[in-house]
Model the fold of this input.
Amino acid sequence: MRAVGVAAVCVMLSACGTSPIGPELPFRMIGQADFPATAELRLSAPAVVVIRDPGSWADFLERSSLRAPSGRPEDPIPSIDFSSEMSIVLLLGARPTSGYGIRGNRIARRGGILVVIATEIVSCATVLPVVTYPLLAIAVNRSDANVAVEWSRETATCR
Done:
């Protein structure tokens, strides 16, 4: 099994420095999951995994229970061209109910670091009392830069 290291670079804002953030970089959503198939991805705290090769991606897919952005099981997970792209996987960490999710807002450079701006979404609807481990996989142009995440939190508005 290929190692997909959980980067200790899951740095919060304070470790990214105070240099200004650059223009937005394009990215696309690849998939999401609430309960990864293996304990290795069921982390207690937020983290980020950067995948730069097809072998590690195939290994991740086997372990993650990733589903297509639509959430429908019959829809395929979009492919990634690892010659020009890489995947950034945001792991939210353990959450006490099924009412949590992740939204990728933007990606930009801050110095030599790719900074992912992401939001933890908390549902206001009825949820299941089960521990979940939300994750979101996105594709971005290939880079050798370290990746950091700046998290915010939002409670969804129910009407």
